[in-house]
Automatic annotation (TrEMBL):
Family to which the UniProt record says this protein belongs: Belongs to the LytR/CpsA/Psr (LCP) family.
InterPro entries hit by this protein: LytR/CpsA/Psr_CW_biosynth, LytR_CpsA_psr
Cross-referenced PANTHER family: POLYISOPRENYL-TEICHOIC ACID--PEPTIDOGLYCAN TEICHOIC ACID TRANSFERASE TAGU (PTHR33392)
Domain Cell envelope-related transcriptional attenuator stretches: 121-263
Coiled-coil ranges (or none): none
Keywords assigned: Membrane, Transmembrane, Transmembrane helix
Protein name in the entry: LCP family protein
Keyword Transmembrane helix part of the UniProt annotation: yes
Pfam families (alphabetical): LytR_cpsA_psr (PF03816)
Annotated spans, Disordered: 1-39
Transmembrane segments: 45-66
Cross-referenced NCBIfam families: lytR_cpsA_psr (TIGR00350)
């Protein structure tokens, strides 16, 4: 399909819970840990890899109880009715697991994730697929302007589903796009994003191109990023020729770097660093209430042999940019590619698809 030049990328603390050492003895929290618990908000939420927590918790088995308590006490949980229009799917032993990773550009301090408030749109969308044999994981980025059917509203941008019907409709829309169940949901806001980056001592990201945003400059090639810099790196889109598609590639580059840093020997062999990572990260996480620390540890143990190179990234297939009948700038779905994606999710061959997928460009 020819590409129209009209497309422009649109604008877009931990509570003082009791902690335990590896022997199970209570530990008095330090003054630094006594931050007021952060209220769950919808402000500029950005997504990160849940697999980071899965693998980190599993790799330090002696601390699972302690870390699990930190995670359960300080993360936010949403029930089935907040997330699904019907029953929450359950993955049986040996089944693949699909986890929806969402962000939002909403600015309302009291967003109801289950509601359908106008203006509340998912800012970043990814689906993480964990292979049935737990030997690999794949992360698919979905451009927020992708034009898809949204039940009850005809065709619309995929991120509009959140505005129309909250998380249940967003969940349903994405599940229908991949023609596979979404078993779990995870959301993180920007404060957690920065805290996680700083907890591991920053990351080294390989940027495809040089650019500047909000006083931060990035060079083509390797960049050493702290939390503030990493946030700027993954948020920029307006300065790129293909907008959100380049932003997705930057997010993937960042997540590859963060995954490598977290499951490196320097991180996992340092109990204080792992503890700080979970402590700093958990208060800014919102997950379904079935994704408890024990569930995370169980999945993480099953995936204990997965290394950074076995976590692959790809993007939903796009055939080009265009305009909707009412004049919106949209990204059209490559229908043949969509059919291949659906087959891959159903056959548990997403890894094969991801290895052969080419990043979409405009």
């Amino acid at each position: 399909m020819s590409h129209t030049p009209e497309y422009q990328a649109p604008s877009g603390g931990v509570s003082a819970a009791t902690a335990y050492d590896p022997e199970g003895n209570p530990v008095e929290p330090s003054h630094r840990d006594r931050r007021p618990r952060k209220k769950r908000t919808g402000r500029k939420i950005l997504v990160t890899l849940l697999v980071l927590v899965l693998l980190a918790v599993a790799a330090v088995a002696g601390y699972v109880f302690y870390l699990g308590k930190l995670f359960d006490d300080n993360s936010n949980q949403l029930g089935q009715d907040d997330l699904y229009s019907g029953e929450q799917p359950v993955a049986e032993a040996g089944d693949p697991i699909n986890i929806l990773l969402l962000g939002s550009d909403a600015r309302d301090e009291d967003v109801d994730y289950a509601g359908g408030a106008r203006g509340f749109r998912s800012d970043t969308i990814m689906v993480m697929h964990l292979d049935g044999d737990r030997k690999g994981a794949q992360i698919m980025s979905i451009p927020r302007d992708m034009w898809v059917p949204v039940e009850g509203h005809g065709n619309a941008k995929i991120n509009a589903a959140m505005s129309y019907g909250g998380l249940p409709l967003a969940n349903q829309t994405i599940s229908e796009f991949i023609d596979a169940p979404i078993h779990h949901v995870a959301i993180i806001d920007f404060e957690g994003f920065k805290a996680l980056t700083d907890s591991v001592g920053g990351v080294t990201v390989d940027s495809e191109q040089a650019f500047e945003i909000d006083g931060h400059s990035f060079t083509q090639g390797e960049n050493e990023l702290d939390g503030e810099q990493a946030l700027a790196f993954v948020r920029e889109r307006k300065g790129f020729a293909d907008g959100d598609l380049q932003r997705a590639r930057n997010q993937q580059a960042y997540l590859k770097a963060l995954t490598s840093k977290i499951i490196s020997a320097d991180t996992l062999s340092n109990p204080n660093k792992v503890t700080g990572m979970v402590r700093d990260f958990a208060p800014y996480m919102t997950v379904d209430d079935k994704l408890t620390a024990s569930k995370i540890a169980s999945i993480g143990y099953e995936m204990r042999e997965v290394r950074p190179g076995e976590v692959t990234f790809f993007s939903a297939p796009i055939s080009g940019a265009g305009r909707s009948a009412d004049g919106q700038a949209i990204l059209n779905v490559d229908e043949a590619g969509r059919d291949e994606i659906r087959k891959a999710f159903n056959d548990d061959t997403v890894g094969d698809y991801a290895e052969n997928a080419s990043p979409p460009h405009l």
